[in-house]
Amino acid sequence: GAGVSQSPSNKVTEKGKDVELRCDPISGHTALYWYRQSLGQGLEFLIYFQGNSAPDKSGLPSDRFSAERTGGSVSTLTIQRTQQEDSAVYLCASSAGGRQGKEELFFGEGSRLTVL
Amino acid sequence: GENVEQHPSTLSVQEGDSAVIKCTYSDSASNYFPWYKQELGKRPQLIIDIRSNVGEKKDQRIAVTLNKTAKHFSLHITETQPEDSAVYFCAASPGYKLSFGAGTTVTVRA
Predict the structure, then answer these.
(1) Is residue A110 within 8 Å of residue A39, measured between CB atoms?
(2) pLDDT value at position A99?
(3) Less Cβ around it within 10 Å: N or C end of chain A?
(4) DSSP characters for A15-48?
C-alpha cells in the first residue's frame, strides 16, 4: 500500500467492552509504533516493535492494554474493559527501522475511539 | 524518561510574518529532534529534523535551531502563508522512543 493504514477510523463503544484497533504498516518497514493522542495533548508513546526483537511496552498505561505484531507486519492494539479515559485517537506509525528511531515516522490517519 | 515542553500552545500570526515555536527537553542523551505538522483531520507529517551534531538547519521557509547546552530547540517559519496553519509538534529522542511536546496550534491570518 501507499501508506500506513489503520482501521477502524472511528469506533464508538460502551464502557467495559473490549476493542481491537488494526494497523497495516508500509511494506518493508521493520519498526512500528503506537501512540495515543488525547484532545489538546501531545502524542503519548504506547509501544514499539522492531523486527523480531521483544517489543518495548513501557508506554502502555495499564494491563488492559496489549498489542501484538504478527509476521513482522500487521499490528493489533487491544484495549480490554474500556474506560471513558481511554477515549482518544490511537495513531500507528512505521519507519524503515535502519536508524534506530532517528528517522521519519510515517503515521496512519488514526483510529478515533469514543467510550460512552 | 524524556520530557518535552513546548511553547506557546497557540500562536496567531499575520500572513507574511514569522512564527517561532520553542521546545525544551530534559534528557541530555537526546540527539534527534524532529518537527511534525498535523493539519486539521490529517495525520502528522515530518517537516524537518535536526541531529545533535549541528546547531541549525534550513529548508526553504522553515529552520530549526538547537542549543544542546541549554537543552532547547526552536522552529522558525518565515513569510507565513495560510497553508502553514496547523498543529506543530516537536519531539526529542535519545534512541527509538520519540517523546512529543503537547503541540502548538498556529493560525495564519490573511
Answers:
(1) no
(2) 67
(3) N
(4) TT--EEEEEE--TT--EEEEEEE-TT--EEEEEE
